[in-house]
TrEMBL record:
Keyword vocabulary terms for this entry: Transcription, Transcription regulation
Region (Disordered): 336-404
PROSITE patterns: HTH_ARAC_FAMILY_2
Domain HTH araC/xylS-type: 235-333
Name of the protein this chain belongs to: Helix-turn-helix domain-containing protein
Native source species: Streptomyces pyxinicus
Length: 404
């Protein structure tokens, strides 16, 4: 799916209650939240830009708990409104949550549930998705969050269909975005939904950002192991797989190394990471190919062999599905961004390890997930594809089974 492909809501949207107003946006802030994500909806919805053709919203900044609220850099904020102000909003935005391991305040969760029941649109930016999930608003729905936290979200809330490929997911009355700048993408999408392309384009020009970004989160992933699986017995099998991606092996090989049946291994792997092992393995091979295309002069055929794909055709198919371009086009675009005269060097080994070259300048780095997988059908486990409906919405359909 492209980042702005959205799942068509299955349920009929609730009618907004009489006391709520569509043009009122409430932003729910918590202590410990990052200042960048918190500032995005404040800037998008809280500044009058009618002179530029952007319809005005009325902003309510609400504290989700007792203040003052401490944010990144030691800043302290005092929210002018409390939770009671949410009752007037037609849109409620949770910019981010301070910790993916701690539960949000129950009073705030109750306020979000009431808002949703009364027809308000609920938005979670980055780790704000964890707050929406804790409130039960993501049950049975597609959602996204920062790729680094997607496995944790999928594991902690198994009824949520986590899709870590997307920059944002619009499921009608509940919307979620990936990390940091993806919150801008989602807020622009909301303006576009409410007031059309011209208004969103005018706002994008004021913010000096593109009105739409192509692609998803795949280009930002890295391959390091998430800290939470370090003590698990499967961690050794996963580490072996990452060190032998240049060899042709399948999930049955990994199950045998774990001394488990395929069925038990699949279940254990999914419970640990929130992802299917086959899709995890394919994605790791694609990421390895991505690194080799960036750092070597190997041909695409050679890259396919060094990443364990059975053929260059298999590499091209999986690469395009995950990154939205062919291997050759990706390499050309990457080199066009590099400083003139800088040549890729041949890697020391056919597989990437902890000392591998990093992603292109400006791309996110940090501890990576096990679970940056395509969204899987909840019944069959088959990767799901998007299809636009005549009305412009997107429905999720089972896609073809993939093989390495």
């Amino acid at each position: 799916m492209s980042h702005d492909s959205t799942a068509a809501p299955e349920a009929v949207a609730r009618k907004l209650s009489g006391r709520r107003r569509k043009e009122i946006v409430a932003v729910l802030l918590f202590s410990g939240g990052p200042i960048f994500e918190s500032s995005i909806p404040l800037s998008v919805f809280g500044i009058d830009r009618q002179d530029a053709g952007v319809p005005r919203y009325r902003l309510l900044v609400c504290g989700g708990e007792e203040g003052p609220l401490r944010t990144t850099g030691g800043l302290e904020l005092t929210a002018p409104q409390g939770l009671e102000a949410i009752s007037r909003a037609g849109t409620v935005v949770v910019p981010a949550w301070r910790s993916i391991t701690s539960p949000p305040p129950e009073e705030a969760l109750d306020a979000l549930r009431r808002a949703h029941e009364e027809g308000a649109r609920i938005v979670g930016l980055c780790t704000g998705a964890f707050v929406l999930a804790a409130a039960g608003l993501l049950d049975g729905r597609p959602a996204t969050t920062h790729w680094m936290y997607a496995p944790t979200l999928a594991k902690r809330y198994p009824s949520v269909h986590v899709d870590p490929r997307e920059l944002f997911v619009d499921d009608g009355d509940v919307l979620t975005s990936a990390g940091t700048a993806a919150g801008i993408d989602l807020c622009l999408h909301i303006v576009r939904t409410d007031h059309g392309n011209e208004a969103a384009g005018a706002l994008a020009r004021r913010l000096v950002v593109p009105p739409r970004r192509s692609g998803g989160q795949e280009r930002y992933l890295d391959r390091s192991l998430p800290e939470e699986i370090g003590a698990d017995p499967l961690a050794e099998v996963v580490a072996w797989a990452l060190e032998h991606l240049h060899e042709q092996f399948d999930v049955e090989t990994l199950a045998a190394r774990a001394y488990m049946s395929r069925r038990t291994f699949d279940r254990r792997f999914r419970s640990l990471t929130g992802s299917a092992p086959l899709q995890w393995l394919i994605t790791q091979r694609v990421l390895q190919a991505q690194r080799l295309l960036e750092t070597s002069d190997y041909s695409v055929d050679e890259v396919a062999g060094r990443c364990g794909f059975r053929s260059p055709v298999a590499l091209r198919g999986h690469f395009r599905r995950q990154l939205g371009s062919s291997p050759a086009a990706y390499r050309a675009a990457y080199r066009a961004r590099r400083p003139q005269g800088e040549r890729p060097g041949e890697p020391e080994a056919p597989m990437a390890t902890a000392g591998q070259p990093g992603p292109p300048p400006g791309l996110a780095t940090g501890p990576g997930p096990m679970g940056h997988m395509p969204l899987l059908h909840p019944d069959s486990g088959v990767p799901m594809q998007s299809r636009r409906t005549p009305a412009g919405a997107v429905s999720l359909l089972p896609g073809p089974r993939s093989g390495g």
